């Protein structure tokens, strides 16, 4: 009898689909060979350090060279901690947390290229929880939980490029994700190639993302629920492909243009809209498949898959 129960349990586990972010690397733009960087490897091969204090985090995140920083427990910081190139910042177990401040990938003189951030809870940041900025490229932000910040939970801006944002949970906040610094920051043209997949936007109000200038911006297999202002906004001639997502109770799932910003371009396909409004679309968009291979999940399965797989403690 025990053998039959164990066999049945093993069969059920085998039937559960694996998360779409591989343990050894990202899907999407962070996987692309470009700008002298073949995919995103973070601190692979570097020194491993267990981080238990804010002072340690600020020290090691700013050191030159490759490091794997393992965040253990709750770490209190203030303002933004600068993260420079070739770092993996990984939460231990399901209780790793950075609170009070956030991580800024790169400065104007020290680039934040080839960085991985995974399995960490971010709360109560004084500014952004995570800011990918200052020409940072090849960044993978995966399986985090972000809430209750002051400004953006996860912004990508100022000529950053080749970024994947996957399997994160966003909640208890208004402005989730900005892509592009401002309507007048035209240096972002030709940059800001970002993949957003299998994220859970649970009750956040807006910016999932609000995109400026970038193309292609690839938004696939995300779960949008109870987003009061809008889901996605494409502005300032951004080119956004929205496919295979599930929108539930979202009155304005996709905007073309928003507020004072000029319109962008949007192609949408195979999305599900439950108790939601009609999406706005315009123009054409470069296919992300010209950069990387990916597999689209059936959008009807997205709520269950994303709720089961997104956030901390799932890798």
Automatic annotation (TrEMBL):
InterPro entries: PbH1, Pec_lyase, Pectin_lyas_fold, Pectin_lyase_fold/virulence, PEL
Signal sequence extent: 1-22
GO biological process: polysaccharide catabolic process
Record domain Pectate lyase: where: 44-253
One GO cellular component term noted in the UniProt record for this chain: extracellular region
Keyword vocabulary terms for this entry: Carbohydrate metabolism, Lyase, Polysaccharide degradation, Secreted, Signal
Gene Ontology MF: a single term: pectate lyase activity
Annotated Pfam families: Pectate_lyase_4
UniProt keyword Ligase, yes or no: no
Record's subcellular location: Secreted
Domain of life: Bacteria
Primary localization: secreted
Stated family: Belongs to the polysaccharide lyase 1 family.
Listed name of the protein: Pectate lyase
Protein's organism: Nonomuraea polychroma
Organism classification: Bacteria, Bacillati, Actinomycetota, Actinomycetes, Streptosporangiales
């Amino acid at each position: 009898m025990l053998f039959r129960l164990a066999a049945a349990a093993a069969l059920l586990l085998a039937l559960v689909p694996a998360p779409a972010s591989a343990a050894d690397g990202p899907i999407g733009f962070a996987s692309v060979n470009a700008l002298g960087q073949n995919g995103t490897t973070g601190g692979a091969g570097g020194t491993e350090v267990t981080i238990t204090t804010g002072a340690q985090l600020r020290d090691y995140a700013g050191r030159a060279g490759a490091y794997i920083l393992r965040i253990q427990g709750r770490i209190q910081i203030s303002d933004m901690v600068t993260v420079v190139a070739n770092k993996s910042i990984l939460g231990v177990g399901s209780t790793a947390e950075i609170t009070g401040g956030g991580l800024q990938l790169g400065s104007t003189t020290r680039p934040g290229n080839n960085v991985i951030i995974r399995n960490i809870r971010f709360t109560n940041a004084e500014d952004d929880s995570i800011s990918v900025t200052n020409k940072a490229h090849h960044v993978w932000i995966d399986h985090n939980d972000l809430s209750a910040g002051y400004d953006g939970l996860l912004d990508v801006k100022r000529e950053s490029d080749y970024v994947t944002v996957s399997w994160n949970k966003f909640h208890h906040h208004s402005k989730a994700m900005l892509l592009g610094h401002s309507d007048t920051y035209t240096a972002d043209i030709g940059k800001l190639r970002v993949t957003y997949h299998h994220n859970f936007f649970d009750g956040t109000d807006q910016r999932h993302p609000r995109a400026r200038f970038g193309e292609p911006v690839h938004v696939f297999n995300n779960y949008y629920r109870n987003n009061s202002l809008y889901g996605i906004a494409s502005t300032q001639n951004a080119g956004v492909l929205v496919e295979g997502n599930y929108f539930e109770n979202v009155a304005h799932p996709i905007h073309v243009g928003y507020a004072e910003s000029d319109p962008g371009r949007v192609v949408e396909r195979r999305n599900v809209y439950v108790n939601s409004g009609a999406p706005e679309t315009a123009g054409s968009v470069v296919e992300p498949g010209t950069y990387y291979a990916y597999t689209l999940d059936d959008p009807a399965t997205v709520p269950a898959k994303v709720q089961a797989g997104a956030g901390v403690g799932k890798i």
